[in-house]
Protein: D-lactate dehydrogenase (cytochrome)
Organism: Tropicibacter naphthalenivorans
Amino acid sequence: MAIAQALEELHNLLGERLRRAKPELDAHGHSESYFPNTPPDAVAYPVSTDEVRRLVNICAAHNCPMVGWGAGTSLEGHGLAVRGGVVVDFSRMNKVLEIRPADMDVTVQPGVTREALNEELRATGLFFPVDPGANASIGGMAMTRASGTTTVRYGSMRDNVMGLQAVLADGRVIHTGSRARKSAAGYDLTAMFVGSEGTLGLVTELTLKLHGIPEATSAGICSFERIEDAVNCVQETIQMGIPMARIEFVDAATTQAFNAYAGSDMPAVPHLMVEFNGSPESVAQDADRFAEIVADHGGSPFQWSAREEEHRALWAMRHNGYYAILASRPGARAIVTDICVPISRLAQAVKETQYDIAASDIPGPILGHVGDGNFHTILLIDPDQPAEMLEAKRLSDAMAERAIRLGGTCTGEHGVGMGKTAFMRQEHGDAWDVMGSIKTALDPRDLMNPGKLVPQG
Amino acid sequence: MAIAQALEELHNLLGERLRRAKPELDAHGHSESYFPNTPPDAVAYPVSTDEVRRLVNICAAHNCPMVGWGAGTSLEGHGLAVRGGVVVDFSRMNKVLEIRPADMDVTVQPGVTREALNEELRATGLFFPVDPGANASIGGMAMTRASGTTTVRYGSMRDNVMGLQAVLADGRVIHTGSRARKSAAGYDLTAMFVGSEGTLGLVTELTLKLHGIPEATSAGICSFERIEDAVNCVQETIQMGIPMARIEFVDAATTQAFNAYAGSDMPAVPHLMVEFNGSPESVAQDADRFAEIVADHGGSPFQWSAREEEHRALWAMRHNGYYAILASRPGARAIVTDICVPISRLAQAVKETQYDIAASDIPGPILGHVGDGNFHTILLIDPDQPAEMLEAKRLSDAMAERAIRLGGTCTGEHGVGMGKTAFMRQEHGDAWDVMGSIKTALDPRDLMNPGKLVPQG
């Protein structure tokens, strides 16, 4: 009844921008992952911070849960309204509010997607570098602390959100951070909100760092017989201070999927795909120096190019990895895992994972952001075989436990959501309770994305 | 009486490592700044995390405030026990616990100084880059979110602390972060502790990112008639993606102080001092490209060198800036200010500040980390003239207000401490109360560095 009352008041506030039709609820009740459908009671489409503030006040008055929604590309079910309530879809708050080329920053609404943002930035010679693969919304990327292929060079959302505006559970609208490049003025609330998965408030504005579009790029690919050699090659490159813009690892199984999908004929061994950004001279030098390191570690000759069309082909192959792998088992559904370890433990983590997968009945090619120690398996299950889903879950759980045991984290970039809650105690110990205390301090009635991230009563 | 009881129990725990002699209390009751002496009731020298935990339990049982102390180089009085209690001096927890060259990280105790750490790292080819000038302790640097000359390239403590161990006010020992290079597993407690100025707990261990000692360095100096030209030159260099390792601004008054102090004969105009790190080829190219940008903005010919002894001389001059300026007014005491603004507002902020200083009776040369938009005035006052102290305070306050008005922050790197509390409401609005809520959630009885950072009851 309380929620019904909230919905009536929200309808008065939003009119047709409060939706209750089943297809709309269903579209906001499933994710790009394996969680059961969980339609909310309603979907709200606010258009301004002030409207979000009013929405929050109505929901708070009636104990109605609120769950933010970006582009719906989360892999861990962050946006599922597991305790009912209203999904707040930010797709109509998708404006680029102010671009400041001199300061290399931009203020945006949370619903803008990273591709739309970069399209708007094009004329400035600047770009927003964080690239999780999917065309996610900036708000969603901030809330999951997203990263991706370019993080080794440009950092993750942690490093690229300078400040934000959020509506708290009690309706207060706060601003965090500033437009200064650094500050020592108090707790880093920006960092606290980035990665909070909507549990502390609804973010309605973000200020982001931008970077200059590099003058030149070189990129290429090389192969190794052994994973250790590929990892050692990357370690040495980092230690030498050669600034890689991307450094991606794909295992033999992924290479075979590429070959089948794109008609290429790469040897079925681990590969590294790498990109350098800089001046025409520096990217040539970086590529040459990298080629020497590759040779020192027994890799194949590093074939690189400064031509943009070849880079596009290379990264299209990488970005299509998910689809290539999916196509390698017709009719399969993918369970995508995500762990991150210290780079010295990366080869061990990959090999133990491969061993586990080989001993199971399901295929699981591996690919990842090797410069960060972050990798994924794409576990291919037959959706009609419940045993395969259980097996995938077992493999995924073993990976998370392995990552924690090796000094890493149960999620490098996908977030906690529904899928990683079970590992939070193991990873954080009593610090998980500290997260719970912070949540309670800011949202004592647990209205902001309840049931997620913190220990549950 | 409660504190007396705590001190008795602490004496039983620590023996001669609990000190109550007046000289020792006085040494921990003044800072490198203008705040009145505030000796604590005792100084404790714990040697292990477990001892800190016991200390905290004793203090908590008797409502005795606890204030962390590193190298005592804070400029804002962070370590002053304004409500009495125990100063916890970490100078005996100064070990480098584990260096992991393959992962380019290190775990240290909080009392190690940055110079001692880099000395221990030397053989590894790695270094810890954050350089606030003073030979501060790593724990103190983390607690104030320190940065400095190299932040434009290597980031601040925010970017270089991967995780930490802290003893909370209730005696729980928590670990934050992991040794993975990134994580999306929950609230970023590491970032919350970095910059918390000891108000959330006592940090007993830190894991830091390391960087490869650059193969080659180029560095040099150039001058400009107008501040705007110097700033525009830096902006363009950043936009071009030329990676500066340091880029320091000194104004005409600072240049004159250098000349008088070191016998140099630089023209009395604004100067930029810049350094590039990389390969021998890349640092030469970077310097050449920078020289072109300098010329485009009307600067003097950029004189650079790849010779280490010349770099040492350059940065010795910069690092001695404080002493050079101090020597320019014999007998004077220095009040060092610290603000940070978006770089597009930097020239305006410097010029308005210069105008204010010129209209006052006290000198105040300006220097700063121009790549971050961060600068300092060193206001020289006669300690026997109370009116000059008031005037310095007025100028400093005007700077903080100016920074906030221009979209920046009242402190770029020195922290809040005693000196910037008055500006927290103006800078953060309701977000300051959120900081207070977090503090209360973790330290409900306000025992950890009470009277600092958050709104006071």
In short: The longest strand of chain B covers residues 202-209. Chain B touches chain A through 96 residues (CB under 8 Å). Chain B has four domains: 2-91, 94-212, 216-323, 329-420.
